[in-house]
Design brief:
heterodimer, A: mainly alpha, rod-shaped, B: mainly alpha
């Protein structure tokens, strides 16, 4: 691999990690919001 | 509290995106190429700021763990936990970009050198901290143990920082506050500092997002407890 290849690999790794983490945060937030909404509805019915 | 977090999240998000674009311009176009290592040295402008913000995240975890043990406020514990997770993310960036940079320069992916080894240990300490939190059956007890663990674990941060000054190492010597013979070309220094501020904003943004998530989890647990009665 050339120097440019290593530079490219380095930056791809950084962006994959950051994007993956942001995606995971967003997915976890959506899941929690759904669960909270469901529990609030159950709480209302109780 | 939630409104404040949302506002800060918006502000930091709005600042970070254009700063990151400018940062990429600086790294790929503006800054001169380092003569001995060549173009691959540009990894430095992501590698070093990631290490700095990881240290800052662990320092936050350390401070809020002490505050939690002292005052037993759950929000102190939440900040400590979220900071540790963000710190692990940035340490992972450091541990992955380092070998990619090292391979063409040192002719090896990894060396059991003091700086690399202590950084890997730091990563393991905070991964263990997160596992301790996730697998604790009693939430408050888990938070207490984790707080003590993070205070002790933080001792590795100064060891990582000073490892290149205390021991003979293959890792480059510090370029900032490194003493005689160290230093950077002014354009390189500017690019590094701009990148550090950009990563600081990014860390703040991610930390706020993570805190919002933890707050939602606390609300969910509260609702579950209420429904159980």
């Amino acid at each position: 691999m050339t120097n440019l290849g290593f530079l490219f690999a380095g930056f791809v790794v950084v962006w994959i990690l950051l994007a993956g983490y942001m995606f995971s945060l967003s997915a976890r937030q959506k899941k929690l919001s759904r669960e909270i909404e469901m529990l609030k509805q159950m709480h209302g019915k109780k | 509290m939630d409104k404040t977090l949302s506002r800060w999240s918006l502000v930091l998000g709005a600042i970070t995106i254009p700063m990151m674009v400018w940062n990429l311009y600086n790294i790929f176009i503006f800054v001169p190429t380092e003569q001995s290592m060549g173009i691959v040295q540009r990894i430095f402008y992501f590698h070093v700021p990631s290490a700095w913000v990881a240290f800052l995240a662990y320092a936050l975890c350390f401070v809020f763990s002490i505050l939690y043990l002292w005052k037993r406020e759950s929000w102190h514990d939440r900040i400590a936990y979220c900071s540790a997770e963000v710190g692990v993310l940035f340490t992972t960036v450091v541990l992955l970009t380092g070998p990619i940079w090292a391979r063409p320069v040192w002719n090896t992916w990894w060396s059991w050198d003091p700086r690399l080894t202590t950084t890997l240990i730091l990563w393991f300490i905070y991964v263990a901290y997160m596992m301790l939190r996730n697998y604790a059956t009693d939430e408050q007890r888990g938070a207490r143990f984790a707080a003590v663990f993070s205070i002790v674990g933080f001792l590795d941060v100064p060891i990582v920082y000073f490892s290149i000054r205390w021991w003979r190492t293959i890792h480059p010597k510090p370029v900032i506050l490194g003493g005689a013979g160290s230093g950077l070309h002014p354009d390189m220094r500017y690019t590094l500092m701009f990148s550090a501020v950009t990563f600081l904003c990014l860390m703040g943004f991610l930390l706020i997002q993570r805190l919002r998530l933890e707050k939602a989890r606390a609300e969910l647990n509260h609702l579950k407890r209420e429904l159980a009665y």
